[in-house]
Write a structure and sequence with these properties.
- The chain has 7 helices and no strands.
- The protein is mainly α.
- The longest helix has 26 residues.
- The chain is globular, with a radius of gyration of 16 Å.
Length: about 170
Amino acid sequence: MMKKKSRIFVKWALYTIVVLLVYVLQTTPGLFSIFGVRPVLLVPLAVCIAVFEGSVAGAIVGGVLCGWLLDMASARLSGFNALILLGCCFGVGLMVEYLMRGNLASVLLLCAAVVLLRGMVDYFFYYVIWNQDEGFSVLLRQVLPTMAYTLLMTVPIYYLVRFLSKRLLIPQDI
């Protein structure tokens, strides 16, 4: 019993370290930047953790930790990304538990849905509502390329989270 508790602690400590490391990599100026577009690495990380660890753990890690860190890194309303990722990761976890398999194709599909939803809600609340003149240009030159780049970065993040999940071999704990 004690060994299982220590493995659970190690597993979640590793996930926390990975989330913090990805946050540092994401917020490092110039890193991963291609033509001024940078991926939002915390979103696919939260989705992958929700796929491998379940709905509740995905909601906690995705919404509370990744969403909160994403809010700190962006100039957005506090809690904006946290609420979006909380709901999305909970839904992703439920979809994988009851409807889908946790393979790469499913993760890419689910991550595409989450990235699209998050990007469009962000675009709507920060450009469309305020009727900004450059809004459509921002959509074409910043929002859509960021979504595509984020989706591309889902593949290595998927394999990292899958490795951690399979290596520790503890069933969904939370």
